[in-house]
From TrEMBL:
Gene3D superfamilies: 3.30.70.360, Zn peptidases. It holds the Pfam family M20_dimer. It comes from Roseibaca calidilacus. The keyword Hydrolase applies. One of its GO terms (molecular function) is carboxypeptidase activity. This is Amidohydrolase. The Mn(2+) ion enhances activity. Residues 171-261 form the Peptidase M20 dimerisation domain. InterPro entries: Amidohydrolase (IPR017439), Bact_exopeptidase_dim_dom (IPR036264), Peptidase_M20 (IPR002933), Peptidase_M20_dimer (IPR011650). It comes from the Bacteria. Mn(2+) binds at residues 93, 95, 124, 150, 335. SUPFAM superfamilies: Bacterial exopeptidase dimerisation domain (SSF55031), Zn-dependent exopeptidases (SSF53187).
Length: 362
């Protein structure tokens, strides 16, 4: 089985698909799940999501384990034999490995209650978890507990980090569009340039608390020397430990932009919104107990993870815990073109989920 899971991961790695376009990945997962005789198989969940239910037939809790289907618009430069065959796309966050870990649980029925394996779409954009929750088909799957893991380069290989409370940050992308009026470069005073507003915006973002705002992109005017600009766009990522903190950050920045637009037309749109992930104390305790039972080392980790993870959306429906599985202290970082999920993590990841299931339903 271990060899089959590695082969599955390599097959997934060769054919990455972007958020919202995971039809081929979902089909491969669905075909594999059918061979494990699930009691219910749900497809097209929140887009291309797939869920398999294994029912003990005895009253008890529903425990959900979740993996992600999507890849990234980054070229794969890992150099491995199973490298991406799709130019410009790569499984450079390890979702292929997360899927292989979950598939290792397929066919397992708990002593009581149900196990749900969820293969979720569109994690990288923050839209997938909320789309799954909004899908009427999720009603029959609704869990009492939900667990997910994320591999973490920089932590010792196979070590586990978990804690109650904030596990990953809330974030949102803002597209700030400014519209004034172009003018001849010799007479800029006859137009209305967004340049002063952009300069103020850059200074203001730098004055905010550390790591709460990242200026990701700016574009202004035409690539010419005879035209004073009349239009500009800035992309900014905002980040906070909590959803409430992110809401306050957004409200404050919206007020600042309105006050400093200086007569420019201002249009702000929101993108890639991620909820914060807050680990439930009981769920986190189950993860730590599983780690201890299995003799897996505990990794030191500065919670919360600054990158965002849309698994937090499930916390409104279940007792959730997201934990981190070390990918090696010298392993390439997540989203690095050279990244490749370590196959050695499939076995401990699967063992952690199995032990958590046994503790809750045994």
């Amino acid at each position: 089985m271990k060899h089959d899971l590695i082969a599955l991961r390599h097959a997934l790695h060769r054919q990455p698909e972007l958020s919202g376009a995971e039809a081929g990945t979902a089909a491969l997962i669905t075909d594999a799940l059918r061979g494990t005789a699930p009691d219910r198989l749900v497809t097209g969940l929140g887009g291309h999501g797939v869920a398999a239910v294994y029912d003990s037939g005895q009253p008890g809790p529903t425990v959900m384990f979740r993996a992600e289907l999507d890849a990234l618009p980054i070229p794969d430069a890992s150099g491995v034999a199973h490298a991406s065959q799709r130019p410009g796309l790569g499984h450079l966050c390890g979702h292929d490995g997360h899927m292989a870990i979950l598939m290792g649980l397929a066919g397992t029925r708990p002593a009581r209650g149900r196990m749900v394996l969820l293969f979720q779409p569109a994690e990288e954009t923050g839209a997938g978890a909320r789309a799954v929750l909004a899908d009427p088909a999720f009603g029959v799957l609704r869990p009492d507990y939900a667990f997910a893991l994320h591999n973490m380069p920089g932590l010792p290989l196979g070590a586990v980090a978990v804690a109650a409370g904030p596990a990953s940050c809330a974030s949102v992308g803002w597209r700030i569009a400014l519209t004034g009026r172009e003018a001849h470069a010799a007479f800029p005073e006859t137009g209305q340039s967004p340049a002063p507003m952009l300069a103020r915006l850059v200074r203001h973002l730098a004055s905010l608390p550390a790591n709460s705002a990242t200026l990701c992109h700016m574009n202004m005017g035409a690539p010419a020397f005879g035209i004073a600009p009349g239009r500009a766009v800035a992309h900014v990522t905002l980040r906070s430990v909590t959803d409430d903190g992110l809401a306050r950050l957004e409200a404050d920045l919206a007020a600042w932009c309105a006050e400093n637009a200086g007569g420019l037309a201002l249009d702000i749109s929101r993108h890639d919104h991620f909820n914060a992930t807050l680990n439930d104390p009981e769920a986190a305790a189950h993860v730590d107990a599983a780690r201890n039972t299995l003799g897996i080392p505990q990794a030191e980790f500065a919670f919360p993870m600054r990158p965002s993870e849309d698994f937090g959306a499930f916390s409104a429906q279940a007792k959730c815990a997201l934990f981190f599985l070390g990918a090696g202290t010298d392993h390439p970082a997540l989203h690095d073109p050279a990244y490749d999920f370590p196959d050695a993590l499939i076995a401990p990841g699967q063992a952690m989920f199995r032990q958590v299931l046994a503790q809750i339903t045994g």
